[in-house]
TrEMBL record:
GO terms for molecular function: ABC-type transporter activity. Its main location: membrane. The lineage of its organism: Bacteria, Bacillati, Actinomycetota, Actinomycetes, Mycobacteriales. It comes from Corynebacterium lizhenjunii. It is found in: Membrane. GO terms for cellular component: membrane. This is YhgE/Pip domain-containing protein. Residues 187-214 form a coiled coil.
Length: 682
């Protein structure tokens, strides 16, 4: 220890006695400070200046005229009007030719063009065959790497603003016209417009009611298959020869009904096998056969009850919609029920007779063939037609489009969904009925107060609420003052690493001439490195606090993290250079390059390639950045101290390299230095 202190005092004396050495040491202390300050201030809030990015926007929209109300509507003009007042980007309203040329030349960072059919596409979204409208975005990716991302985000904002503007404009036009139409009620155009609106409302109401009837019929039909599937499943679940399992997924409700019928056919095959087995078993007692026959008869009776329920549901639900098909299907179901009644009667008649003959087997075959014929009948096509008739409501019935397990729970959920849909459609039909009555009243009496009540006293407020019914309130869990403050951990870590690297370039790491002990010389030389590191880290952290004013959650912890990170970086780079000479300096530069990307200082680690994710835990900068983040934004369950502990763990291999491995590597470093000197260049 005494010899190490002597080496340290000698280095300090040389620095104090040399003006050049003092200037160099001053520069080594100041450079990390300037690196951190300038970078943090430069990125303090760059997204606050996006209003300087010029983005051209042009509209070729020709507008839209509705046949309901003779009011020309141009959503494109509404969008341009709103963008003129938008200060997020520097929107330049121009024509499409200038917008494209400016995007290519670099005069604009991007160009957005609204198509000719913009208003038409947006205002006819409800018609058959309509499609969503698209806006064209042209970005100049050559001009800057980040600007396409910013302008792309701006274009998404425009898209969102267009959607909001569209809803609000539509609401203002329709609701505002209704609320203020009293002054024009006597005109012929107004009467004609009210007639058209009333006709549209009547048509929409009838479509809603028809869809509700269809959904309710579908719900009743699905409900009727539940007991049928239960009874068929009960037969199949009895101890029998192995039955192949049903398919893993079926579509609801058409395939579910078809699968239920298939299960019933399969169950009759199982019943026939059991009856035939009883017939072949000569040593079966009369009592055993009677019990088995009664059990099979009960199971057939349960299946018959399921078909009766299906017949009643089809008759009640389908008759109002399609009486002809309802009669055909109920007739086919009656044939199946009759065949099953015959099976049940033959099985029960065989009990007192004490024997099972050909008649019982024939009746089973007949019942099975009847049900198999029912699968090929119009029942499946009719159910498919009911399901297809709801295709326009696919958003509401999206739960029915996914594969569903063939079980009663899935069918019950399907039945509940379609029943709820029918109720919702009825409610909408009732609302349209109220609107229709108010329109008729307004047309006949000239009093639009009823329509005004439906629209509300303030159409603008209602339109705004319709345009943006949900808002997002941002709550920062660990708030920072600015984007630059969030980037401060990365820049501070890089500054301290660069400061340590510069010290290894300008300061000597070899043992002084005449030093008695290499270990003492090693730690003595490190003294000047540690002193410079402490000065660098102190000035950097205090500058962030008082000059840059990042306002950390824990200012003291920020200073502590700077001291620890600087000491570890200094010790690591000092050991590399002391043991490997110039190769150690090159290795330190390589580590700097790797740590810029792999320490998750700028981008979330999971966004980086897998190789960077794998190497990140083995880099000291990773834990230094975590410690700085905890000090700036706030700690959580001791994460600050855990990060410092992980950072200090790098001291152990560094100590081994500088003290134990340095001697074996000395011959290599000597050869390397001689080779470099022989080049007369390095």
């Amino acid at each position: 220890m005494k010899h190490a202190l002597e080496v340290f005092r000698t280095d300090l004396r040389h620095a104090r006695n040399s003006v050049m050495a003092s200037v160099v040491l001053f520069g080594l202390v100041v450079i990390p400070l300037l690196f951190t300050w300038f970078n943090v201030l430069a990125t303090w809030d760059p997204f606050d200046n996006t209003s300087q990015l010029k983005v051209a926007v042009a509209s070729e929209d020709t507008g839209y005229d509705s046949d309901i109300l003779p009011l020309p509507i141009n959503v494109g003009e509404q969008v341009l009007s709103q963008l003129r007042a938008n200060e997020q980007l520097d929107w330049v309203v121009t024509n499409s030719e200038d917008a494209l040329d400016g995007a290519r030349s670099g005069a604009y960072y991007a160009a957005i063009i609204l198509p000719e059919s913009f208003s038409t596409d947006m205002l006819t979204f409800y018609t058959h065959g309509s499609h969503s409208t698209d806006i064209a975005l042209y970005t100049n990716e050559k001009k800057n790497a980040l600007s396409p991302k910013i302008t792309g985000a701006g274009a998404e904002g425009v898209s969102s603003q267009i959607a909001e503007s569209f809803t609000e404009t539509l609401g203002e036009v329709t609701l505002g016209v209704v609320a203020n139409l009293n002054s024009f009620v006597d005109s012929g155009d107004t009467q004609a417009a009210l007639d058209r609106v009333e006709q549209r409302a009547a048509s929409a109401q009838e479509q809603m009611r028809s869809s509700a009837r269809t959904a309710r019929a579908l719900s009743d039909l699905v409900a009727s298959t539940v007991p049928l599937l239960d009874s068929a499943q009960n037969i199949l679940n009895r101890p029998t020869p192995e039955i192949p399992p049903a398919s893993g997924g079926v579509d609801v409700p058409t395939e579910a009904l078809d699968a239920a019928l298939a299960r019933t056919v399969e169950s009759y095959g199982t019943v026939r096998e059991r009856v035939a087995a009883l017939q072949r078993t000569a040593d079966s007692t009369r009592q055993t056969q009677a019990g088995a026959l009664n059990l099979l008869a009960d199971q057939v009776e349960s299946t018959t009850a399921g078909f009766r329920g299906m017949r009643d549901s089809v008759n009640a639900a389908l008759s109002p919609i399609n009486p002809a098909q309802a009669a055909i299907i109920t007739g086919q179901l009656d044939q199946v029920i009759a065949a099953q009644d015959a099976v049940q009667a033959r099985l029960r008649a065989a009990v007192p007779e004490g024997g099972i003959g050909k008649q019982e087997l024939d009746s089973l075959d007949k019942a099975r063939d009847s049900i198999a014929g029912l699968r090929q009948s119009e029942l499946r096509a009719t159910v498919q037609e009911l399901q297809d008739s709801l295709s326009g409501l696919r958003g509401t019935l999206s739960g029915l489009d996914t594969p569903t397990e063939l079980n009663t729970d899935g069918l019950r959920r399907t039945q509940a969904t379609t029943a709820n849909l029918a109720q919702t459609l009825d409610e909408h039909a009732q609302t349209l009925g109220e609107l229709r009555r108010e329109i008729i009243s307004a047309r006949d009496t000239g009093d639009l107060s009823g329509l005004a009540k439906l629209a509300g006293a303030d159409p603008d407020a209602l339109a705004s609420a319709l345009a943006a019914p949900v808002g997002v309130e941002r709550q920062a869990v660990y708030p920072v003052t600015s984007f630059g403050a969030g980037m401060a951990p990365l820049y501070t870590t890089l500054a301290l690493w660069v400061g340590a690297l510069l010290c290894s370039v300008f300061l000597r790491t070899d043992a002084p001439v005449g030093s008695p002990r290499p270990i003492a010389a090693y730690f003595g030389r490190f003294g000047i490195f540690a002193l410079l590191g402490a000065a660098q880290s102190t000035l950097v952290s205090l500058g962030l606090l008082f000059f840059v004013q990042i306002e950390p959650a824990h200012p003291v912890l920020l200073v502590v993290a700077s001291w620890v990170a600087s000491a570890v970086f200094m010790f690591l780079i000092y050991a590399l250079v002391a043991a490997l000479a110039n190769a150690g300096k090159a290795l330190a530069v390589l580590l700097l390059v790797i740590q810029i990307s792999s320490s998750s200082g700028a981008y979330p680690l999971h966004l980086l390639p897998e190789w960077f994710q794998n190497i990140s835990p083995w880099l000291p900068a990773t834990y230094a950045i975590r410690a700085f983040r905890a000090a700036i934004a706030g700690t959580y369950h001791g994460d600050f101290w855990l990060s410092l502990l992980a950072l200090l763990a790098f001291v152990i291999p560094t100590l081994l390299l500088g003290t134990v491995l340095r001697k074996p590597l000395e011959a290599y470093t000597t050869k390397l230095n001689s080779a470099l000197e022989s080049t007369k260049l390095m």
